[in-house]
Amino acid sequence: MATKIRLQRGGRKGYAFYGIVIADARAPRDGKFTEKIGTYNPNTNPATVDLNFERALHWVECGAQPTDTVRNILKGEGVYLMKHLRGGVKKGAFDEAAAQKKFDAWKEEKNKGTEAIRNNEAKAKKDLEAKKLEAEKSINAAIAKKVNEKKAAEAAAKAEAEAANAETEAAVEATAEAPVEEAPEAPAQEATEAPAEEATEAPAEA
């Protein structure tokens, strides 16, 4: 029976999550499998791999053939490196302690690289959030400026209206308080008629 190490899709639409399984090469991609040896989540940076290292190494040494993607995953986890080191131990090139030391040194270097990627990702995310916050502050400042300008304009218009009203009221009050001039009285009629009567009566006495 040809044995494959491959991915079995899970998760949900738009968020694929995979199991790393041992299956018969003739079985459907997401069908029955012999053993599940880990999971693979490509949605993180870097991708998250949870692998049963010993079982993966066992199946690789037994001749199970991984798909291209799974081969890259196993290489990234050091499965093929350990297989190579064990081959060196069997050939007498070095002992198991030396092999383990080499593997641990490789693992430490890999972890440093992974940690650097995660730190860069966190920094980039933090910088992006800072830029978004700064943009929001700029927008809020612009809105506040417009509101203040509008309020200042309304206050100025109100002050002008109140000043105009005050001037109008002052003018009305000044007009109401101004003295009214009286027309001169006409001379009495009796005073005008008296000399005429005297002039008429004078010839009669002569």
TrEMBL record:
Residues 157-206 are annotated as: Disordered. Keywords: Ribonucleoprotein, Ribosomal protein. GO terms for molecular function: structural constituent of ribosome. This is Small ribosomal subunit protein bS16. Residues 162-178, 185-194 have a biased composition (Low complexity). Coiled coil: none annotated. InterPro entries: Ribosomal_bS16, Ribosomal_bS16_dom_sf. GO terms for cellular component: cytoplasm; small ribosomal subunit. PANTHER family: 30S RIBOSOMAL PROTEIN S16, SMALL RIBOSOMAL SUBUNIT PROTEIN BS16M. One of its GO terms (biological process) is translation. It comes from the Bacteria. Belongs to the bacterial ribosomal protein bS16 family.
